[in-house]
Amino acid sequence: MNLSKFVDELPIPPVIRPRRKDRYHTYYEATMTEFKQSLHRDLPATTVWGFEGIYPGPTFEVESGEKVFVKWINNLPEKHLLPIDHTIHGAHSDIPDVRTVIHLHGASVESESDGYPEAWFTKGFRQKGPYFSKEIYRYDNFMPACTLWYHDHTLGITRLNLYAGLAGFYLIRDQREGELNLPSGRFDIPLIIQDKSFHQDGSLFYPKQQEKPVAGLETSVVPEFFGDTILVNGKVWPYLEVEPRKYRFRLLNGSNSRFYRLRLKSGQLFYQIATDSGLTESPVGLHEIILAPAERSEVIIDFTNLQGKRIVMTNDAPSPFPDGEPVDPETVGQVMEFRVVQPLSSIDTTSIPSFMVPVPKRPVQTASKVRFLSLTRKKDQYGREVMLIDDKDWDAPISENPKLGQTEVWYLINLTNEVHPMHLHLVDFQVIDRRPFDVEKYKQKGILEYTGPAIPPIPQENGRKDTVIAYAHQVTRIIMKFGPYTGLYVWHCHILEHEDYVMMRPFMVIP
């Protein structure tokens, strides 16, 4: 479809208001429904799913330490918008097609409120998954200021539910952040970047089959999905009018499979001030930012002295990343446009501080446990590729059971030819390094023999993370402390097509 660029203004999701609030707790309700929304001027309105009647959903803004309760309400129709593959674990035809469970991505929460993939529920909570335990989730929000996001996490159909629109921002603020004199209020803007494809009638396109259709199946999961248009906050190639001043942008890759390597066509810097899980020690000036699915990066862009300029944010990440097809510079090579055309409403007194918060390095020697975990693949009965963690299916017995308060180092040993953005629930971690190794030797003898020196994390990864890119034929090392909750959680690849089939494993934090 040949859609014009930069003809629709960037929408900024509204902030959701609580139903009740007192000194002790805040209570919200967020209802999921199906509705039509205009995603581009020249497209008929598109049927999407969202929260509170909008896609993406409204933004939660909470204080660090605020006790928040959310009732996620499924009021969706019984027929799914998109094609379901009933051969996938957890999505067989004997359970309802439309079911949801919401995960607050990046949050450290009690396991009953984490959005376990089998804790799903249907409209009106009429049917519930085997791990469903409560209708109202509790978020204690003791993390420091950070950009989180909420999205569907239902076993076997996460890729479909999120693509249909079930996602939104959840921002935690704290006193320290407030003292840093960063751009705030209307100069602090969250941006969820996604790719989609459309039919001529404006409806969402999602493939029913792989490129070479799978014999014997009407609908088959695809290895990855790459749309041919880019949306920001639910608009295709939008523009944003800005003043000649500093702005804070919270960048989120909300795509199923697509990576982004973002640049500003003006050649100017992004000043990164935060990673997935909060502020970094010091800002870092970057000409490009790589975002895997689910990764966040908070940046300041300075439009001072650029009156009248139009600045396009571009993307040149191949798909699949990093060695796939180069992007089409006329379509997915462009993300959005900033227009420096608004008059200065007040003098810009905000700053890019030289120091923000301490982020002490976790020394490797503090780890009481080291785990070697391989990322593998096999073929299923239809000849399709199945991505796995440690060659284990979703329902194999739990093999990772860290103790509460224990620090661990995980070696993510990628034996596949693909890159995998690996996400752990409950905890944040630090990236130690990556290192190439002899893949065949490891496959045949289980011996880890490195073939090159350790590669330190890139500057934009120096901070607290919850998602890390595990590159093909490399060992990626991360370090984290488990807690403060015990219970059942998951870790998985955040390429949603991989997660659904079947690159996800439970882990249990034990007392």
Structure description:
The structure is a single chain. With 511 residues, this protein is mainly beta. It has 3 domains: 20-174, Sandwich (Immunoglobulin-like); 185-340, Immunoglobulin-like (Sandwich), CATH 2.60.40.420; 364-509, Immunoglobulin-like. 5% of the residues lie in helices and 37% in strands. A hairpin with a 2-residue loop joins β17 (270-275) and β18. It is globular.
What is the gist of this entry?
The chain is mainly beta and 511 residues long.
Layout of helices and strands:
Elements: E1 20-21, E2 26-37, E3 46-51, E4 60-63, E5 68-74, E6 102-105, E7 136-139, E8 146-152, H1 158-164, E9 167-173, H2 175-178, E10 188-198, E11 204-205, E12 229-232, E13 235-236, E14 239-242, E15 246-253, E16 260-264, E17 270-275, E18 278-286, E19 289-291, E20 296-302, E21 310-315, E22 334-340, E23 369-379, E24 385-389, E25 407-414, E26 420-424, E27 429-436, H3 439-445, E28 467-470, E29 474-481, E30 487-493, H4 496-500, E31 504-509
Parallel strand pairs: 2-5, 4-9, 10-15, 14-22, 23-25
Antiparallel strand pairs: 1-2, 2-3, 5-7, 6-8, 8-9, 10-11, 10-12, 12-13, 15-20, 16-19, 16-21, 17-18, 17-20, 21-22, 23-24, 25-29, 26-28, 26-30, 27-29, 30-31
InterPro entries: Cu-oxidase-like_N, Cu-oxidase_C, Cu-oxidase_fam, Cupredoxin
Protein name: Spore coat protein A
Family: Belongs to the multicopper oxidase family.
